[in-house]
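Let us practice reading a record.
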Amino acid sequence: MKIHILGICGSFMGGIAMLAKQLGQEVAGCDANVYPPMSTQLAEQGIALTSGFDPEQLAYRPDLVIIGNALMRGNPAVEYVLNENLAYMSGPAWLSEFVLKERHVLAVAGTHGKTTTASMLAWVLESAGLAPGFMIGGVPENFGVSARAGNAPYFVIEADEYDSAFFDKRSKFVHYRPRTLVLNNLEFDHADIFPDLAAIQTQFHHLVRIVPEQGLIISPAEDENIQQVLQQGCWSEQDVIGKKGWHAKLLSPDGAEFEVYYQQNRQTKVMWNLLGEHNVHNALAVFAAAAHIGVKPEAVAEGLANFKNVKRRMQVRGVVNGITVYDDFAHHPTAIQLTLEGLRNKVGSARIIAIVECGSYTMRAGVHSQRLLPAVQAADEVIFYKECDAWEIEGDSDVAWQSFAKVPDVLAASLALAQAGDHILVMSNRGFDGVHEKLLAALE
């Protein structure tokens, strides 16, 4: 089968392309900008890429066109597909039909931690000898690729709530039919898709509705938003992260060492390279999901000990003249706060300079304007980068902060503050105009 993918360089659609190629399909695709790292991954897989959406690239009449959710009516390639009556479907629908059917799907959903938790779970199953398939919205360092067909029956997927396509406004995850479902947490986000939290909860309940009676739903007992979803109706077995289920006892303040308990019974001890209580929470979800398919706690702990985090999750980009520069994907106030607190517990009293790009649609719309300053209190100095003046950062702060609308000004302010022994944490869900490399080069 000849498959053409519109919007191929996104993390999700790039994963679809790699899976299709692994399944023996002839795959090509295009995007507005063909750019690394996804373009590099795809080229290495032998997938032909075209920049732009010129309809001529579809003149060979592929057997199927998979259309990404960033593509809208009016796009010339989309209009060609419709006018020429080419077969088309969404990425999630293709995944459901050609990859996930008859697999035991382990899905990780939630506002925060999906990529990290799904990567942990895939690696734990791999290290236990199960060779799972996986599809993750990032590149797990242990695997080096974001998607793999793997061996039946297990498939781990990062299940996000974004819509499926312009012709299917349901969340992607309703296509996945999980048997093991992790609901990590739930907050309002994606203001470009959802008007309020209740709308997101509706989609999450659609997901809950399709988990089999003999399946398992894992949720944090203290997350009120998740529990409200489950109270709308749940027909599956449940397990919890909390005192009545899986919980941890920290043996180090940064979360690098902890004991795992199920109810009142100690299960095992974890020593690993990640930090922060949020990652301990993610690990507990992995213990619960792995237990559902018979992986023992000791095997989970062994896998976690060798786990390498996803790129752009507290990734050290370099150390220059005693100054450490980190890159992290945090782009929501809760994630920013947890990431900073984790770094604080690691570095103690050393100075932390936080650089935050307000880059997501929800951030750029000013939805979180009152939550930003409370989120950065673990830092010593904060620099915000926001491209427009349509909204203001609101509230009081004990931490000194500045805001700039141009990346060169962010860079100059960072250099003025930096001194030996500092930890500079850059948080963004976008490219941030290569500020990490520019900062490291300037510090030289």
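A brief commentary: The mean pLDDT is 92.
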